[in-house]
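Summary for the steering committee. One of the milestones for this cycle was to obtain a three-dimensional model of the protein with zinc ion bound, which we needed before selecting residues for the alanine scan. The sequence and ligand used are listed below.
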Amino acid sequence: MMRTYSGSCHCERVRFRVTADISIATICNCSVCTKKGFVHLIVEQAQFDLLAGESHLTSYRFNTCIAEHKFCRHCGIHPFYIPRSDPDKIDVNLRCLEGVDLEQLELRPFDGRNWEQAICTAHWQRDTDVSSAVLDRGAVLELAVLDPSPEPPQGSNLRSNVRSR
Ligand SMILES: [Zn+2]
């Protein structure tokens, strides 16, 4: 169910509002999420409002430098960031929302230690064309070689459906 939640860092210089269904969230086992304890929910920018504290945010980048791990430079809390999988969206740390009982949420694992493989089956990506999204970012070109998507046969329904759209 969509609801609007208030969120903040610990010192509350950074405050935001997010409108989302938070019933299914993600725990990632990558090197940085493990240490941060981040509980992920990726939302559209339209679902997110930064109310205060932009000037108090700083960011940490590593590896591909696509993800921008924002955190409050005063209290060190990471309330949200720009995720590598969806750099046009916001990944909110559900631990930073008010009135949320994490025990009530379904927390699904994401194998961020093996990011290139895991992103292709990530539950929040299933409705989108992940392979092209990932390839556009140049992250896993080898996937295209290892697992070429076969063209549908000429004249198949799939192809004519695609063409007719
Ligand atoms: Zn803070």
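Key point for the committee: The chain is about 20% helix and 30% strand.
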